[in-house]
Every structure is written in structure tokens, then in C-alpha cells.
Amino acid sequence: MVDQASGADLAGLSFEALTPTGFLDRAAAVHADRTAVIDGPLRLTYRELHDRCLRQAGALAGLGVAQGDRVAVLAANSPLLLESHFGVLYAGAVLVTLNIRLSAEELRHIVEHSGARLLLFDPEFAELAEAATEALDGVRIVGPEEYERLRAEAAPYRVPVADERALMALNYTSGTTGHPKGVMYHHRGAYLQALAMVGHFRLTPEVVYLWTLPMFHCNGWAFPWAVTAVGGTHVCLRRVEPAQVWPLIVAERVTMLCAAPTVLISLVAAAPAALDGGRVTVAVGGAPPSPTLLRDCARIGFDVTHLYGLTETFGPAAICDWRPEWSALPEEEQSRLRARQGVSNLVSCAMRVLDAKGRDVPRDGQTIGEVALRGNTVMLGYYRDPAATRAAAPDGWLRTGDLGVLHPDGYLELRDRAKDIIISGGENISSIEVEAALASHPAVLEAAVVGVADERWGERPMAFVTLRPGAQATTEELRAHVRARLAAFKAPDRIELGELPKTSSGKIRKVTLKARANGG
Amino acid sequence: MVDQASGADLAGLSFEALTPTGFLDRAAAVHADRTAVIDGPLRLTYRELHDRCLRQAGALAGLGVAQGDRVAVLAANSPLLLESHFGVLYAGAVLVTLNIRLSAEELRHIVEHSGARLLLFDPEFAELAEAATEALDGVRIVGPEEYERLRAEAAPYRVPVADERALMALNYTSGTTGHPKGVMYHHRGAYLQALAMVGHFRLTPEVVYLWTLPMFHCNGWAFPWAVTAVGGTHVCLRRVEPAQVWPLIVAERVTMLCAAPTVLISLVAAAPAALDGGRVTVAVGGAPPSPTLLRDCARIGFDVTHLYGLTETFGPAAICDWRPEWSALPEEEQSRLRARQGVSNLVSCAMRVLDAKGRDVPRDGQTIGEVALRGNTVMLGYYRDPAATRAAAPDGWLRTGDLGVLHPDGYLELRDRAKDIIISGGENISSIEVEAALASHPAVLEAAVVGVADERWGERPMAFVTLRPGAQATTEELRAHVRARLAAFKAPDRIELGELPKTSSGKIRKVTLKARANGG
């Protein structure tokens, strides 16, 4: 029992499992009377949130949920989904967050694959919950009224975390191709990722965090736990519509939000003319923000930090950590630097860029390789899919499928998804680069570029562009705009104007566009 | 190998041992060209610091240091001591920091007890290093010239951390009574404590941290690792003399420092008349800052946060986390709130106040109990002293020996060390409270209050007071000042003016004063 040489813990007083529920325990002890949750007129203190979550665990136990069982939740960014990020864990169960934009059929597949036998849902998803589970045996669905009653009647309950690396949540990938895979999260990773977010975004008890990013997406990049760790305030949000968002930002004095660029574009486009000068910290991820978007954000008081990560890495593995000396550079150069993916975050152990033989590429800003990750904030693997796990991490390094370069300063800049790179006449064309060139045109709201099979060149770029409401531009004008900025061979031969198809989590469906471009 | 139910890590990609050397690895990858260390004219980048530390590990291995061996370092806050906080760990060894203010005899005891067979020292401590080790067999001492040569010749080297809870450092308590005990630190605790400091002090790459707090004291409250984690700058400092400190604060644009109140008092007293308005974040700990000191700090642009902890808890276990709403209170009330010990930090799992039967005291701001701690940032125990470990943590909760109350808002306020409380006529008198009352007199620089045996009352308070340079006050005037603020029975019967005796880490030696007061 006592091993002084190795420093074994004689009195057993120096170990507690790392689990994000520890942050709620602390907040309830330390910030009991501070506002934890705002949801319309509803206000919950940390004492109340803590009590609710412990009673949710009691209710789940009463419903027969045992340690390791999966509990699915179909909800927008509501108090139910927030408290499930603690209550399901207190119950010793595994949280399966469901994407509310999926079809009943897609949801059925996920619920079945996860093995969840209980599904909680918010009132607006009653029909969807029914439809998703009616073909499944033994799945119980619990709606808001029953849930509220069960939770109110239940006693506070908790199962201690015996193994901090145990499965804690499943996050199904949005799957731009193929069936979604269940990414396995563990307590330790969630705890550390939350601390990284606290550190990088300087979260304090004063943070008022608006839930524009879906919590069902990578568990909201660990912000359910990070905001709670510091005793900040969560502002719930059911729909990310500018007409809902802006009044909340103003009324609740929001200090921070996270969003994908596509969401940010629509928010910024609808910004009220007169803002009161309060600044908002914005973390953007999911795709690189264009310099144009960054400039627009700066104008309305959004301080943007670019994050990069995957569902497989608890969300943000890298951060474009701002260097003080960059603030003296011209605005255009700042935007270019800010759009890079950056460096590994405080707790992600390593980020490498590997060539085809698994060797590190030089830090020359030119040699393209695949981004590879490992460490405490990487998933355990894909649930019930050892083959996919092995394929994703052939040598213990998770291959992201993202291609990029390392600059001499050590910062990563993505050039493309492996499957989105366009190879034309033997030259690589980065679809991201062409998209950024298009987005710098004042009439362009959003752009996506894909490869089209070409007899002579192998592939040629084609662009799909959405113009800003009321703006006008011809495709010839846009092509000229790109040519003035990039090598001629990178300019898209064809440009189509219109809406862009998107996944349920707001990513542009390049697979669809590629099929359309190639006549599929 | 694959256990989907428990979420076992199929590809082995989601685990890295938590160790503070990981922060230097990150800084070298992410902030390679930023300034890591300033020491007079010397400037080191993170690339250089990383290289030095890996070569230190190589040099140690070359000297025969094996995994688990203890390496003692006798140095002020110099580059040697800073790099030893990484290099000794890279070598797989255990860092034993020595207090430079101890006598050769005291040092000999520590070196012998730790079993260190190698001692590194800075040039100014050559004689002391010789004297401390000459009676010890098989202890090799390595001075600056030999060290620089060995390090320059060595190849970079590292031993992976196999167990994150293994012994990583020994911190010998300053021992106001009895022999110093070797407090055992582990990698995991140091890593988490560093993240807590990053979060609470909002450390960024822009931090310029001045080393006023000795690194040999609780490994500098984890700041060697925390500042490195964010790629900030360490400013070395050999002596904490106002005449050395102020020019550095101005010249290097220092943004943060840590200090005990007694150090802060002397700094503030010597503040230049015209400061440039730059604000400095100051973490104060080791004893409660008086409201007077807090007021003086605010005047010169020092933003003070009060920390509370022990050597046994990697330094700060609690922080007086500031609530935004308090900023609207009158200044005196703010000072009172800021002098409280506060709440458990982001990563310390729990802080309790227990009565004599081990039950939690009510949060009434009145019932005094003993502060008890456990969690990941608590020591493994006392090195080679299982009996002392058991005595300190009889039930898995570390008893701090500090007496305090919990306020209704959950904040801890210490009333006294268990051994410093004065019991007079059955009433408890908090020596801290009487000291604060004395310190609020404009002529008082510092005060210490102890109990004197009294036939009638059991004990009576006696005060020892140092006046500010050039200030005048009679003891009768001081007594009247206390009477105007506290219950009459708390006013000290005797007040003696003069210097206060201090330990090597700057704490007032109350044991000495008590002996003097009682005619010992």
C-alpha cells in the first residue's frame, strides 16, 4: 500500500477522477446564487441547476438506467439538453445527443446503433421522437411533462466515476458521406478540454455565453462544462435566427458565443445598425472564416478567434492563438493570420502534419501534408466500429483527412479536406483558397468550390456562389475578381449562382455540389 | 484489448500522461521564437529554453541520475532553477528545491533526508553548498561552470512519464516548528494546478511574469509551468529588494507577480511616485492581506487577488474569486471581501470546514472549524514519514491546521492557525483580526499578535508592531485605535515596537514572538 519510492498515495487523498460534473459541484459550492441559466423568462441559479441535474440522475435511475447505459436526448439548446450534460453523467450513463435536423430515419439508425433504450425530448420534437423510435423495440421515450414530473419527484442521486477514461458520451458525426459514426468521448478528455476553453477564452464568472453553437455538436465544444466551471451564465437559444439572436445579445449583455462561419455570416449580415459598443468574444470553427468575414466581424465589435478540430477531438484541438505583435500589422495581413487554424490548444498534446510516408513535413508554409493528432482530447474510437477506428488511426495518430501546411512560425494552415483538393494539370488547387478569393468580392455572401472531371486537365474548379441579399454580380465579373487575385489556372471555369446545400450542422454539402457539377 | 462497454481506447491514441513538461513541449512548438526568459541582459526564446532543459536532462543522465533519483538545486529565482523545473523532470528524476535562506545545517538535513546524491547550485551559493554537503557521503555538488559545460556537451534527452501520479518533486516545509517535512508532489497535480493558475489569472502569451515569489516555495505556486503553458515571459529576480524590483517592473513592462503580504508591504512602501499607469496583476498568499495593504495596492495599480493554500496543496488551493457585483460596494467593504480566503480553485475538488467531530460547520460566518482538503492538487504525503502523513489526513481529508468560518456565500474566511488562536476568558480572539485592526493605523507597517499566559484570563493578546519608516505612534495610541474598532477584550494589553522575526520564506515567526512574550 505504501510505496515511497514511486510516491504512492499513502492517505488516498490526492486522487479524484477527472470528470466535468466536478465543475458543476464546484459552481454549486462556490457560485450557488449566481445565474447559471437563462431561457426566456426562466432563470436558474447554480444551486438550482445542480439540484436539477442530481434529480435528473435520480429520475434516470428510477427509469432503470444503469451504469454505462446510453441515454439519448433530442433537444435544441434548451435547459433539458444543458442539464443532460451533467445529469446523465451523474447517473453513470452515456449521453447521446441527437441532431434535431436529422430525419426520423437517420435518427432511428443512431438510436439503434447507440443501443439507447431511453430517449428524452423537448416538446417541439414529440413527433420526430415518435417517428424515430416506433420501429425500435424496447426504446422508451419520455417527453417534457413526464420528465418534469419524474425529476421533481426523484431524489438527488449520483454514481461516482470509477474510471475517468470510461465512455461518457457518444457524438455521431454529421456524415457528409456514408453512415454517421459514434465518436466515443471520455470524462478525462471532456474535463481537460473544458479547462483549455476556460484558459484560451479567459472565462470568468462574468461570462454570459449565448448558445448559438448546437450542444449536440461535439457537446458544444465543451462549453456546457467550461462556462459552468467558472460560474458563468448560459443563455439558451432554440433557433439560431438573427431576429432571435440580436435582441438576446443586447438584452442579456452577451459576452461570448461560438459559431460556424456560415452562421456567423448570417448573424453579421443582420447586425443592427447601432450597437452599443459592447464587445463579444466569438469562437469560430467548422470551416475557415474568410478574411472578408473577419473584417465584417471586427467592424461590429466581434473579437473572433479561429478554432480547428473534429468531432473526434472533442471539438477544438487547435486555436489560432493571437500573438500581441500581430496587432500592429495591416488589417488585411491580420485577417490572413487570423484565418489560419493555428496551434495545438493548451491541453492537446501534439499536432503534426505528415507526408504520405508518415514523416513530418518541413515548416515552410508550402509542403502539404495530412494533419494528425493524438492525446487526452482525442476520442477513444468509433463506437462498435473497430475497423473504422483502426483505419482512422493506423499508427496511434488520428488522421484527420485535412490537408495543410505548417508555416515557419509553427502555425497550421489548412489547404483542404483530402477529398476536396482539386488536382488540375498536376497542380494542386486548394478549394479553400479559391473560396476565400470569391468571398472577398463585396457582392458575395458565401462560396463553395469543387472539382469537375476534365479530359485535358484531370480536374477543373467549379464554383457555387450565394450573393448577398440585394447585391448584383455577373459570373464573369466574379471570375475576373478571382483572376486578379490568384494564378489563372485556379480561377473556376464555371460559376453557378444560388443557394448552397448544407448538412444538418450547417456545413456545406460539397458531396452534393460535386455530384451536381459532375452531372450526377 | 477492445472493450466497447467501458470505452477502452482501441487505438491507444487518447492518453498522454499529464506532466508539466508537456507545457514546455507545447511552448517550444507553438511559441518557439517568443521570449521565454529574461535574466538581466540574457534573453532566451522558448526554443532555447526547451533545448536547454532537454540538455540538462542529458547532463543529469550523464552524471548517473536515474529514474526516481532526487536532484537538489540551491538557487535563487535564476535560469538554473527555472530550467530545473523541466530538465529534472525530463530526466525522470525528482526535483528538490532548497531554500537559499536556510543554514548549512538545515540544508544538510534536507539533502540527507531527501536522499539526493546530486546538488546543483548558483555561483553565489558555492560556500553554502560545500558546507551543507561536506559531512554527507556520496553527494556530488555541481557548480555553474561545470554545469554549463556538461549541459552544453550533453545531447537532448527525455524519459517518458510512465505514471502521472509518480513522485515529481519534494518541497520541504519551512517549519515554523520542528523539522521540515518533505511534501511529495506528483506530475498530475502540478499539471492541473498550472491550468488552474492559467484560468484564474487569465494568462496569455502577453504575460510578463516577475519572479518575486521564490520558486523554491511550493515550486512557485506552479507558475514556472503556468507561464510556460501560455508562452509568456519569465523575468528572473535574484533578490526581492524594492530597489531591484521597481526598475524591472517598469523596464520589462511586468504584468504579473506573486508575493506574500510582507513582501508586498515593502514593495508598496517603496513604489515610485510616478507610475506610468500600467496595471499589474498581483496574487498574494501565505497570510491574509490587511485591508490597508489592499487599499495601498489599489492606489498604485496593483490588482490584488488573494490566494490560500499550503505547501501540501501545491500552493493555492483556494482563491478569492471576485464577483462582478462586488465592484459596486464601498471600498472598505471591497477590501474586507478581498481579504477572505475564498473558494476552492478550478481544479481543487473540495474544501470543507469541519468541527471537532469531523462534521461540516454551517455557512453562517460564525461557527469556526478546521479547513480540510482533498483532491488532485493535494500531496501524496510526507516523504519517508508515513506517521506524519496519517496524522495530517486521519480520514483521507488533509487537515490544514487553519481555523476559519464559511460565510453564507460559500467563501472561507480564516480566523487563525489552530495554534495561533488566543483563548481569553473563554472567548476566542483571532490574532488575524487584531493584526488587521492594528494595520489599519496609518503609522503601522506590519503587526503580529500572540497569546500570553494570564492567570486570570487564561491568555491575553500581546502585539508586536513595526512602524512605517519615519512614522510615529505611541503604543497607547495604537491600543486606542484597536479599541475603537474591536470589542475591548480583543485589544492587546501590551504592544512592543520593533522589527519582526521572520522565517526564511518571509513568514513572521510567531513561535519566536510567543516565546518572547511569555518570557521564554
CATH top-level class of the domain at 18-237 in chain A: Alpha Beta
Task: Report the CATH superfamily of the domain at 18-237 in chain A.
Answer: ANL, N-terminal domain
Query: What share of the residues of chain A lie within helices?
Result: 25-40%
The CATH topology annotation of the domain at 18-237 in chain A reads as: Rossmann fold
Task: Give the neighbour order of strands across the main sheet of chain A.
Answer: 2-1-10-9-11-12-13-14-15
Number of helices of chain A: 17
Biggest chain pair contact, residues each? A-B, 77 and 77 residues
Mean pLDDT of chain A: 91
Give the overall shape of chain A, derived from the CA principal axes: globular
Tell me the CATH architecture of the domain at 18-237 in chain A. 3-Layer(aba) Sandwich
Largest sheet of chain A: 9 strands, mixed
Strand content of chain A: 15-25%
Q: How many beta strands in the DSSP annotation of chain A?
A: 24
Which helices and strands occur, and which strands form pairs?
2 copies of one chain form a homodimer.
Chain A: H1 21-30, E1 35-39, E2 42-45, H2 46-62, E3 70-74, H3 79-90, E4 94-98, H4 104-114, E5 118-121, H5 126-133, E6 140-142, H6 144-153, E7 167-172, E8 182-186, H7 187-200, E9 208-210, H8 218-221, H9 223-229, E10 233-235, H10 242-251, E11 256-259, H11 261-269, E12 280-284, H12 291-299, E13 302-310, E14 315-319, H13 331-338, E15 343-344, E16 350-354, E17 369-374, H14 386-392, E18 398-406, E19 412-417, E20 422-424, E21 427-429, H15 431-439, E22 444-454, E23 458-467, H16 475-483, E24 494-497, H17 510-517
Parallel strand pairs in A: 1-10, 3-4, 3-5, 4-7, 5-6, 9-10, 9-11, 11-12, 12-13, 23-24
Antiparallel strand pairs in A: 1-2, 7-8, 13-14, 14-15, 16-17, 17-18, 18-19, 20-21, 22-23
Helix pairs in contact in A: 1-2, 1-9, 2-3, 2-6, 4-5, 7-9, 12-13
